[in-house]
């Protein structure tokens, strides 16, 4: 049942509404203003990923020590792990045969010298007689040839003496460089052949960190990649190095490539055989990072709103996302450095809509926002 007084007020209310609508139609339309949004300018960068690999410390150069002559080993005063200096004796051979050969060479030299003196005296006498006409040409020539043969024998005896002295010296194997003995291959009493390795020496003039790396991680240019190497049991002990050598062929079992990294001034704690961890920073091609709040969607593809600086209008553009991070999105394609992207207020945007950029927050504004986020009242500046 309707109240009688309500029926009397309905015509008056309707009249007031009609007058209000007519007044609104007669007023001029307000100019369209842009929607306030927050924007960021696109900047190019590189995405770095750290790759860690395990390896070991090895000598940059290894030297095999061997005798130049064969014989029986009588002494080997060094063992694995010993440090040797330049000229230090590593092993000795039995010198009996070489000493006897040296004695025989000395005797042959003395005999050759005596023969030279004899033939020289004979030739000088024949030369005087030839000048006086008291000898024949054949005897003179014979004395000359005998002197030349004796001189040749003397030179041969001198060479044999030097050879015998050298062979006696070869019975002592000395280190030509300083280093550490990493292997011994013979024991005293064994008979060795010339050139047979007696010991292995790791030189002190360089250290390498050796890693086994899959083919997809190999750098195309050796020497340009910097590797940070740290001891596995003491990460604070570090050294920098550069790729020095890459094996041309993969290991037949592991299918990995041995990569040698030359260390730059490695600390003493990085001893041979130590386990190390190498860290390589692998940078991708140029990428772009934008705030996560800037990411929109167009159909099933991710997209962003691009601001046209000429007329302050926006348009939606598809992008390829490489990676999602908590606070940002890594875009691989779709954006160019210098473009303006809407980072805040994308919910109500339409293609072609005019926008206005919000001013950058001041220090006081950031403080107030932080206080409100923490639940504290903002304190106005004095």
Automatic annotation (TrEMBL):
Protein name (Swiss-Prot/TrEMBL): Efflux RND transporter periplasmic adaptor subunit
Coiled-coil stretches: 140-174
Entry annotated with the keyword Kinase: no
InterPro entries listed in its UniProt record: Beta-barrel_RND_2, MdtA-like_C, MdtA-like_HH, RND_pump_MFP
Natural source organism: Bosea rubneri
Family: Belongs to the membrane fusion protein (MFP) (TC 8.A.1) family.
Signal peptide feature range: 1-29
Positions of the UniProt region annotated as Disordered: 361-382
Record-annotated Multidrug resistance protein MdtA-like alpha-helical hairpin domain positions: 102-171
Keywords attached to this entry: Coiled coil, Signal
Domain CusB-like beta-barrel intervals: 213-280
Transmembrane segments: none
Classification of source organism: Bacteria, Pseudomonadati, Pseudomonadota, Alphaproteobacteria, Hyphomicrobiales
Ranges of residues in domain Multidrug resistance protein MdtA-like C-terminal permuted SH3: 288-347
Keyword Electron transport on entry: no
């Amino acid at each position: 049942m309707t109240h009688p007084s309500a029926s009397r007020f309905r015509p008056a209310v309707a009249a007031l509404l009609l007058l209000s609508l007519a007044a609104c139609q007669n007023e001029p339309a307000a100019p369209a203003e842009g929607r306030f949004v927050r924007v960021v300018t696109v900047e190019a960068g590189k995405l770095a990923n750290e790759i860690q690999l395990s390896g070991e410390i090895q000598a940059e150069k290894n030297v095999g020590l061997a005798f130049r002559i064969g014989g029986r080993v009588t002494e080997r005063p060094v063992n694995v792990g010993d440090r040797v200096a330049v000229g230090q004796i590593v092993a000795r051979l039995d010198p009996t045969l070489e000493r006897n050969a040296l004695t025989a060479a000395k005797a042959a030299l003395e005999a050759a010298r005596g023969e030279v003196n004899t033939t020289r005296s004979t030739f000088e006498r024949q030369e005087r007689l030839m000048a006086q006409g008291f000898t024949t040409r054949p005897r003179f020539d014979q004395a000359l040839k005998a002197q030349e043969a004796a001189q040749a024998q003397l030179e041969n005896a001198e060479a044999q003496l030097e050879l015998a002295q050298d062979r006696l010296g070869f019975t002592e194997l000395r280190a030509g460089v300083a280093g550490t003995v990493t292997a011994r291959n013979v024991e005293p009493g064994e008979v060795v052949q010339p050139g047979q390795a007696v010991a292995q020496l790791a030189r002190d003039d360089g250290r390498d960190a050796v890693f086994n790396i899959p083919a997809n991680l190999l750098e195309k240019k050796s020497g340009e990649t910097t590797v940070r190497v740290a001891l596995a049991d003491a990460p604070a002990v570090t050294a920098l190095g550069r790729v020095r050598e890459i094996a041309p062929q993969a290991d037949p079992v592991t299918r990995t490539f041995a990569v040698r990294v030359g260390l730059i001034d490695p600390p003493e704690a990085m001893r041979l055989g130590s386990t190390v961890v190498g860290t390589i920073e692998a940078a991708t091609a140029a990428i772009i990072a934008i705030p996560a709040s800037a990411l929109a969607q167009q159909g099933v593809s991710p997209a962003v709103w691009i601001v046209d600086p000429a007329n302050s209008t926006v348009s939606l553009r598809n992008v390829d996302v490489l990676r999602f991070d908590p606070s940002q999105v890594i875009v691989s394609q779709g954006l160019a450095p210098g473009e303006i992207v809407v980072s805040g207020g994308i919910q109500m945007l339409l293609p072609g809509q005019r926008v206005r950029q919000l001013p950058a927050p001041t220090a006081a504004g950031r403080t107030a926002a932080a206080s409100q986020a923490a639940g504290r009242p903002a304190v106005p500046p004095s």
